[in-house]
Amino acid sequence: MTTPILGYDTGLPRELGLYRLAAINVYRHAAARGLEVNLSAGAAGFKRLRGGRPAIEYSAVYARHLPARAQRALDLLSAASCRLGAPLLRRFAL
Predict the structure, then answer these.
(1) The domain containing residue 1 runs over which residues?
(2) pTM of the full predicted structure?
C-alpha cells in the first residue's frame, strides 16, 4: 500500500498531531488488511532517522495509445530520470 501524498491543514496547531493521526490511519488500514506500507518519496533525512531505508522508486506509464509526440515526450522524461535523476538520488542518498 502506498500513500504518495499525506496532507493536512498546516494552519492548525502542531499540538493536534495531525500528521501523526493521518499516518496512524494508514498503518491501521494496512495492518487490518495484511498490507505493507510505503510512504513514498520525500523527507529522506526524516525517514532515515526513523529507520527508513532509501530505495529508488519508479512509476510505470502505459503510453502506446497516446500520439507519437506524447510518447516521445515520455521517452525523454524517462531517459532524463534514469540517466540524471536516479544517479543524483543515489549520490545524495535521497
Answers:
(1) 1-40
(2) 0.52
